[in-house]
């Protein structure tokens, strides 16, 4: 019976590592992602080299794209994601402008370390109350591992107990599922961060256009409007700083959450390699609580629609010159 349970435990651990490895395979080279790993707007990942190869192939197959000296220009352009066929539009930096997925890179490092780490050996824990008794059962009422004598004569004699192996397998499965949930939620948070970065760019662009329009209108009556023009420009700038400060605070909040989740995932993966069931169960509850809190307790705050709109700063300069100094934004 003991040999069978040990075999099942090893088999399940191996299956977990195999499932994790499948998530780290590049769809192009069919090998484990090679750093740096880039995340596409559709949230799929590629090795940067593979992304560059796809981009070069699609550029070379299009005779209408610009070239330089017979070689396809590597900045700007577009290609399709090999996983979902979503079109990826590159900026002037080309594939080097794609954001790196540091979480995936960290998981790859951890996976490689764990795969090459020699199997740890340790003695089975003994009961503190009965020094000659091994911890071999789990108290369901007190939620802690204990020994058979504690069940018969000790503090757990009126409690319900279960075989250590059964509880070990269940809680280890819960931990594995919790890690999978955290990794999945991290992709969603990463998507929000990408949207916030785009919002920052839009806010800056809207402010830039409004400033240009304002300056053009003030230049018409520059001699008498110079002072007022500076005042109104400062109002726009203050509003821009307030909006950007709010968005950046959200970005920092999500970045801190990503870092915390990454560390929690790293701790979970390392802890799953604990070979001793009793040691594992003595600490699993605390780690599972942290994972539950991280996956359920984080509230994602989004900015309202039209947040980047700056139309409230539009001005009308058709008023008479005698009231020019009273000009204000049309609200």
UniProtKB/TrEMBL annotation:
Catalysed reactions, as listed in the record: S-ubiquitinyl-[E2 ubiquitin-conjugating enzyme]-L-cysteine + [acceptor protein]-L-lysine = [E2 ubiquitin-conjugating enzyme]-L-cysteine + N(6)-ubiquitinyl-[acceptor protein]-L-lysine
Gene Ontology biological-process entries: regulation of microtubule cytoskeleton organization
Keyword Cytoplasm: yes
Coiled coil (residue ranges): 193-242
Ranges for domain B box-type: 122-164
SMART domains: BBOX, RING
GO molecular function: ubiquitin protein ligase activity; zinc ion binding
Domain RING-type positions: 26-85
A Pfam family recorded for this sequence: zf-B_box
Domain COS: from-to ranges: 272-330
Keywords: Coiled coil, Cytoplasm, Metal-binding, Muscle protein, Nucleus, Transferase, Zinc, Zinc-finger
Highest taxon of source: Eukaryota
A cellular component term, taken from the record's GO annotations: nucleus
Entry EC number(s): 2.3.2.27
Location of the protein in the cell: Cytoplasm; Nucleus
UniProt-recorded name of the protein: RING-type E3 ubiquitin transferase
Species of the source: Anas platyrhynchos
């Amino acid at each position: 019976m003991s040999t069978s349970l040990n075999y099942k435990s090893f088999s399940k651990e191996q299956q977990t590592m195999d499932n994790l490895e499948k998530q780290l395979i590049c769809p192009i080279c069919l090998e484990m992602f090679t750093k740096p790993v880039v995340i596409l707007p559709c949230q799929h990942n590629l090795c940067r080299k593979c992304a560059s190869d796809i981009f070069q192939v699609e550029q070379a197959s299009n005779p209408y794209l610009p070239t330089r000296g017979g070689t396809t220009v590597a900045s700007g352009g577009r290609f399709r994601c090999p996983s979902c066929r979503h079109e990826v539009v590159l900026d002037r930096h080309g594939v080097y402008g794609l954001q790196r997925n540091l979480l995936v890179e960290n998981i790859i490092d951890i996976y490689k370390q764990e795969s090459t780490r020699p199997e740890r050996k340790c003695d089975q824990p003994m009961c503190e109350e009965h020094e000659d008794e091994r911890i071999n059962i789990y108290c369901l009422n007190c939620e802690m591992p204990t020994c058979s004598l504690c069940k018969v004569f000790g503090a757990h004699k009126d409690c319900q107990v279960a075989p250590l192996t059964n509880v070990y397998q269940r809680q280890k499965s819960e931990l594995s599922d919790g890690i999978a949930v955290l990794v999945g939620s991290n992709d969603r948070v990463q998507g929000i961060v990408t949207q916030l970065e785009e919002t920052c760019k839009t806010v800056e662009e809207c402010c830039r256009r409004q400033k240009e329009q304002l300056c053009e209108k003030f230049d018409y009556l520059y001699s008498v409007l110079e002072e007022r023009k500076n005042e109104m420009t400062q109002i726009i700038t203050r509003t821009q700083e307030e909006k950007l400060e709010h968005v950046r605070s959200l970005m920092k909040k999500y970045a801190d959450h990503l870092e915390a989740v990454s560390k929690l995932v790293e701790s979970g993966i390392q802890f799953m390699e604990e070979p001793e069931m009793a040691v594992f169960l003595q600490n699993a509850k605390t780690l599972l609580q942290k994972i539950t809190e991280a996956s359920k307790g984080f509230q994602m705050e989004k900015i309202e629609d039209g947040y980047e709109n700056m139309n409230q700063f539009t001005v009308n300069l058709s008023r008479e010159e005698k009231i020019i100094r009273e000009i204000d934004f049309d609200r």
